Structure formats: C-alpha cells, structure tokens
C-alpha cells in the first residue's frame, strides 16, 4: 500500500468523522399547560453534535474572522403541531415544535434557536403523561 493512499485514507476518516458529528438526533420534549390535565411527551429530532471551533488565546492579535464559534444548528427544519389532551374548551390545546430535517455547523441563529445553555434546565412532566408519536 502506498504511503500516499494510506495518508489519504487516514485524513478522510479523521475529517469524515469530525464532519458527521453534527446530525439530527432523537429527542423527547415534555409539554404541559397549567389548565390541561395531561403532559404531552413528543418524540422529535433536534440538531446535536460536535462542530470544529477555533479559539485562540491571542484573541487580540487575530482578526475576528479567524475566530469561529460554530454550533450544531438547523440546516433545514419544519414545524409540526400536536394536540395536548385534557384541555378545557377555553384553552388553546395546540403546541407547535421544530423537527430537524438536516443539520449543519454554523453560527447560532436566535430567530429559531436557543443559543444559551442554561445550567438548570428540566425536561420532565409534573402531570400524568401521554406520548405523542409524530
């Protein structure tokens, strides 16, 4: 085996693994409204994974374009709507949520993403749970 072929194979495997770590991932969202009887567990997909980031200790010496803080974010998404069971007539029982179709490494867009990781974040139900498979 030639050294060029072996080096190309190793480079391809290393780059391919890094590039593929940002992808749609299964996730369960728990949704409840105060007025409704049940909590809805929704199976969906979100973008999750690793993106290459460049940050230098010499930030003052480099141009801003040389520093990149990429996150795994939506390339293509669609919204679906679920019906929360057990809601009284005066309450709107619908909940719309994003479904990741494809993902990319890029800048975080606050129009459709939460770009801040909160330290204390819970995703659970306090009421009886119903499962929604979309």
From TrEMBL:
Chief location: secreted
Q: Which Gene Ontology molecular function entries are recorded, alphabetically?
A: hormone activity
Give Gene Ontology CC terms.
cytoplasm; extracellular space
Q: Which Pfam families match?
A: Cys_knot
Location(s) in or outside the cell: Secreted
The UniProt keyword set, sorted, is: Disulfide bond, Glycoprotein, Hormone, Secreted, Signal
Q: Which InterPro entries match?
A: Cystine-knot_cytokine, Glyco_hormone_CN, Gonadotropin_bsu, Gonadotropin_bsu_CS
Q: Which GO BP terms apply?
A: estradiol secretion; G protein-coupled receptor signaling pathway
> Which residues does UniProt assign to the signal peptide?
1-16
Which PROSITE patterns does the UniProt record give?
GLYCO_HORMONE_BETA_1, GLYCO_HORMONE_BETA_2
Instruction: Establish whether keyword Glycoprotein is in the entry.
Output: yes
Please report the stretch or stretches of sequence annotated as the Glycoprotein hormone subunit beta domain.
21-125
Q: Which family does it belong to?
A: Belongs to the glycoprotein hormones subunit beta family.
Query: How does this chain assemble?
Result: Heterodimer of a common alpha chain and a unique beta chain which confers biological specificity to thyrotropin, lutropin, follitropin and gonadotropin.
- Please identify the protein, giving its name as recorded: Thyrotropin subunit beta
Q: Specify the species.
A: Nothoprocta pentlandii
């Amino acid at each position: 085996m030639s050294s060029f072929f072996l080096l190309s194979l190793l480079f391809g495997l290393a780059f391919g693994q890094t590039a593929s770590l940002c992808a749609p991932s299964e996730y369960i969202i728990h949704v409840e409204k105060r007025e409704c009887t049940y909590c809805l567990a929704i199976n969906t997909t979100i973008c999750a994974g690793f993106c290459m980031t460049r940050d230098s200790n010499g930030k003052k010496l480099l141009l801003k374009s040389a520093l990149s803080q990429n996150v795994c974010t939506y390339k293509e998404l669609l919204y679906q709507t679920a019906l929360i069971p057990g809601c009284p007539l005066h309450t709107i029982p619908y909940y719309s949520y994003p479904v990741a179709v494809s993902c990319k490494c890029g800048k975080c867009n606050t129009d459709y993403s939460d770009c801040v990781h909160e330290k204390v974040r819970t995703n659970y139900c306090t009421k009886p749970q119903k499962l929604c498979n979309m």
